[in-house]
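Revision sheet: structure tokens.
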Amino acid sequence: MTIDRDKALGAPPAVQEISWTTRDVLLYHLSLGAGADAATGPELHLTYERGLTVLPTFAMVAGTSISSGTDPDPSFALPGIEIDLRRILHAGQELKIHRLLPAAGTATLSSRVVELWDKGKAAVIVRESTATGPDGEPLWTSRMQIWARGAGGFGGESGPQPEWNAPDRAPDTVLDTPTTPQQALLYRLNGDLNPLHADPEFAKAAGFDRPVLHGLASYGLVAKALVGGLLDGDAGRLTELSVRFAGVLFPGESVRTAVWRDGDRLLLHATCPERDDAPVLTHATARITA
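Predicted:
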């Protein structure tokens, strides 16, 4: 495992053209459990191509694809960075949506490493991506934080301490979201074929009892819960979502999201009730429109 900080931060952006279809959006929504709850009905605004709206967190998988019959490369390679896939975890995610995402479209995606933090025994890699539509206007900006175990010691700052405190009162809303035992197997069809989410032996080698749900799946589940539980199903009202991935969620468990509202800002804390409210997403905030 090697990290060259200067090379990583000085590398030019990687630019690629991406596209997605209505089918991709439908698959994403279904992988988050859309239409599976009899109490909420078929959620046709998420599961039917007529009148389809797009959850903002679809941006995290837009333009990804899987190749039949091939195995994922067990490494994580960026300019100046080469580490073992089994040693990395998704540590945090930020997303800002600049305008409502179309159900099918194209974009230019520009990505680069913007921060590298040395945690001693680990490194945190911050990768920023901006998607621009065919009209030249931005669609979304995201920042992914990747925790790389055993990759620290390269020199540099340890990074800022997150500032987040829950209000001294009960949450305004609590949203419970179930998952299914096959949730990770379905979610991986969006493009993330990391065997950590499917292969029990790989998961054990990485230190887990069994495969875990993708961090971005938990992220999407919370976004869907906010849209359905607070925003009357209007996906366009959720414009920002920032989280830290504080713990794993195993397929079949639930996510319980506590929500404190402060104007157009939401403070969030997501836990797993089946494991004594073990933290799943922390230091979480969202922005909504009226």
